[in-house]
Specification:
By secondary structure, the protein is mostly beta strands. Helices cover 14% and strands 35% of the residues. The longest helix is centred in the last third of the chain and has 19 residues. It is globular.
Length: 355
């Protein structure tokens, strides 16, 4: 007997498209962790497909970041030492200022006029260090400077508790989570009651509420507002429950690409101190809730490390606005003059959970 025309076997097999990723890294501020961890001791950073060196000037107190390989004979400056506001090459003693210019060669009568290397713009905000990347070499865009969190400076919150993870995938996989409502149940033990996304210039926000098996107690509502400021720096304000007490936290989830197939995530938790608790008890509560947040977040990691990049995802009506998100995210990989107005305007999308 012939199968009917609408038999499932007549449906063509869906072919996944996964294009090779261009080696171009997103324009914007990228968080490098706690600012206090960067001192006069040079720090090696393998990011953006190259090697960098970070050091804090002894006189100006500013963290400077340079390309790490000395243009003289190729030595790694992260193995050198800091002198004043400069770093000294361990090979021949050439000294490079935080501005990227060579300012001393101990055995030369004059410095070659071409003796300049790339200096990367940096800034500190909310106790964090940021580096600016732009494939076109443009300076930082003022309105995209990381927003100041007054809570961090108020004394009413804990300091950041930080962890770092390396993911063997393209960093777009992390950003996709902002629109992916459907993964919160299977991966993060959440029951989503409401889910909304907002695109606004260089920012993209996710509003979510519902239940959570780890971060709140049975019958209580868990709320989350997560915002990407640019392509790589996301903070989330969450409310949950711990031993019958409401807990308010700021989470940090930020990434820096090592290359197109690998990135580092820095995950941080800052918690509002609970009134009536001693400093020691608050510290213990922060440690416990941080571990709970990490237990929830870490579920993504095994998936990221074992999935492929899908450029044409097969979506259903219960998925969030993945195409809206990816179009927004694409602006950071375009030349500044090429960004269409459609990616700059305010847009909202509500995804309705299945009742």
């Amino acid at each position: 007997m012939n199968a009917p025309a609408n038999n499932k076997l007549d449906t063509p097999v869906y072919i996944i498209k996964s294009e090779k990723v261009e080696e171009r890294y997103a324009r914007g501020w990228h968080c490098l962790g706690l600012a206090k961890d960067y001192t006069e001791k040079p720090v090696r950073l393998d990011y953006f497909g190259t090697r960098l060196v970070a050091f804090r000037g002894l006189e100006d107190g500013v963290v400077h970041i340079l390309d790490a390989f000395c243009p003289h004979m190729g030595a790694d400056l992260s193995r050198g030492c800091v002198k004043g506001d400069s770093i000294v090459c361990p090979f021949h003693g050439w000294t490079w200022g935080g501005d990227g210019f060579c300012n001393d060669i101990p055995y030369a009568k004059r410095i070659p006029p071409k003796a300049r290397m790339k200096s990367w713009p940096t800034t500190e905000q909310n106790g964090l260090l940021f580096v600016w990347n732009d494939p076109e070499g443009n300076p930082p865009i003022p309105e995209q400077h990381p927003q100041r969190k007054e809570d961090y400076y108020s004394g009413e919150w804990s300091d950041w508790s930080m962890a770092k993870l390396t993911i063997h995938s393209n960093c777009r996989e992390l950003v996709d989570n902002m629109a992916d409502m459907a993964h919160f149940g299977p991966v993060h033990y959440s029951t989503v009651k409401s889910f909304r996304n907002i695109q606004d210039g260089h920012c993209f926000t996710q509003h979510m509420s519902g239940g959570h098996e780890i971060l709140t107690e049975e019958g209580q509502i868990f709320t989350s507002v997560a915002t990407y400021e640019g392509p790589a720096y996301m903070t989330t304000t969450m409310t949950g429950m711990l031993h019958g007490q409401e807990v308010v936290t700021h989470l940090l989830v930020t990434h820096v690409p090592v290359n197109t197939e690998q990135f580092d995530i820095r995950f941080g938790v800052m918690m509002k101190k609970i009134p009536g608790l001693s400093e020691a008890d608050n510290a213990a509560a922060v440690a416990q809730y941080t571990q709970m947040c990490m237990d929830s977040f870490i579920q993504d990691v095994d998936i990221w490390n074992n999935k492929i990049r899908v450029d044409n995802p097969l979506l259903c009506d219960g998925d969030g606005p993945l195409h809206l998100l990816r179009k927004w995210y694409s602006q950071f990989y375009m030349d500044l003059a090429s960004i269409p107005d459609s990616l700059k305007v305010h847009k909202e999308h509500v995804t309705l959970p299945r009742s």
